[in-house]
Amino acid sequence: MLIDDHTIAASRRRIAGFRLHRPVTIDEACDLLARFSDGAMLHAGGIDVTNRMKRGFLQPHVIAVQQVAGLSGIRLGETEIEIGAATRHWDIEIDPGLRHALPTLCDYVAGLGNIRIRMQGTIGGNIMAAEPGYEMPAVLAVLDAELVFRDCATRTERRLTVDQWLEIRGANPGPLLLTSIRLPRRPIALAWNRQLRPALSLVAALRHDGTGQMRGRMAVTGGSSGPLIADIALTAAGREDPDLGLVARAWVDRLPLLQLPLGPDAGYCSEVIPILCRRLLQTLSKRLP
Amino acid sequence: MTESLRIHIKVNGRPESAEIAPNLMLVDFLREHLGLQGTKLACDQGACGACTVLLDGRPVTSCLTFAFAADGADLQTIEGASRDNGTLSQVQNALHDCGVPQCGFCTPGMVMMMEGFARQDPLPPGQTLETWMNANLCRCSGYQGFRRALDQLANEAGNP
Lengths: 289, 160
Ligand SMILES: Cc1cc2nc3c(=O)[nH]c(=O)nc-3n(C[C@H](O)[C@H](O)[C@H](O)COP(=O)(O)OP(=O)(O)OC[C@H]3O[C@@H](n4cnc5c(N)ncnc54)[C@H](O)[C@@H]3O)c2cc1C
Ligand code: FES
Ligand code: FES
Prior knowledge:
The complex is a heterodimer.
Chain A: E1 2-3, E2 19-21, H1 26-36, E3 40-43, H2 47-54, E4 61-64, E5 74-76, E6 80-84, H3 89-94, H4 96-101, H5 103-109, H6 115-120, H7 123-128, H8 136-142, E7 146-151, E8 156-161, H9 162-168, E9 176-184, E10 189-193, E11 200-208, E12 213-222, E13 228-235, H10 244-253, H11 266-287
Parallel strand pairs in A: 2-4, 3-4
Antiparallel strand pairs in A: 5-6, 6-9, 7-8, 7-9, 10-11, 11-12, 12-13
Helix pairs in contact in A: 10-11
Chain B: E1 5-11, E2 14-20, H1 26-33, E3 52-55, E4 58-61, E5 74-76, H2 90-97, H3 107-118, H4 129-132, H5 143-156
Parallel strand pairs in B: 1-5
Antiparallel strand pairs in B: 1-2, 3-4, 3-5
Helix pairs in contact in B: 2-5
């Protein structure tokens, strides 16, 4: 017996029919994405795909990428860490090599959602879902990650910083398959505060830049379509600066705006974000290698 | 437009094969097609854990998983949680001894999470059964009994 649309009665929200494609190579996945273009949706862990379809979003073609060779897994190079786009959050948490190279990233990922979501959801899905409260774009931005895409229209590779991706993603960048995320392999301190999530969460990274200065990046996730990002340069002596409140205020002033369109109001943000930032600075100064 | 596909899944050790529509959810496949109604559907959006099953040993939400994504997998549901001789598993016994189930609606998902936890090796630092169980909600709010059950299991494992 075919179990079809008509026999699906139990789910609260019915999902419209679609045609399923199950490529096994990146080239096949790209061909399909280029061919069906706007009518296709990639399915990695499928969490957001399913949730959106339950809300009525319909795509005639679904391209499941979980079987695609080379799209998942973690590779540690001398200078770079590469995480496949279809790597599940859980596999990031438990990877011994990554835990050695960048333990705070593993710890951050271990705090996302719940264990089932982390067993199913992928890092690429979190980035590409472009949901305001999703945190991986912010974390990867402060770690200076690059997103590696296969442009399926031109068959070329595109490496974009997270900031560049956030800039172009709203302007229909064409059929892009995220293949991996590359992170510089170097000593860096990472700290975060997720207490007010999903309304507001902060993540920041601090590292020595080799010229006696420290470089900091902070990202605020919450009520806007992508994270708000601010950079700061500090003299090494600033690390011991007792007035972290001032440093925090200067850093927060560099955020592009404090008004989060979908989140708490500007007054609240301007009070709370510097406090959270100050706490992050305290943690960062302890964690800085 | 719906094209069918054939999937092959091992469910509680038994091979199953079915012709399905791609938009069939795993929870519906289990409940409606296989008649395994122990897996419950509550929030339908991945938050409560009532629909938890083990996919290749890992707990997943069957309300957010298409049946096609389980093709070729080894699936375990609450119906396969008891011991081979039909007696309750250690986890089930602990929940029973501590009077955890009230209406019982959340219990299958809780049991599957606990069974899933026991199968993970390695575990990241700081993750315990208790931290995992934050992912499951009980509308009858039987959390105290649940805590006692966790203690009982820890005692049985020799780490009180
Ligand atoms: C209950 C719950 C709690 C959560 N809590 C948190 C949290 O605390 N913090 C947080 O950050 N997130 C949270 N999330 C979000 C979760 O991390 C994401 O839903 C998950 O990572 C998405 O991954 P996926 O593989 O299932 O994506 P999918 O649903 O498969 O895909 C999502 C989107 O990305 C596209 N896509 C997927 N892979 C690619 C690719 N390789 N190239 C191009 N496009 C691609 C898809 O087409 C789709 O548009 C939560 C989600 C739920 C349901
Ligand atoms: S019904 Fe699936 S998580 Fe709630
Ligand atoms: S016992 Fe009723 S929901 Fe948990």
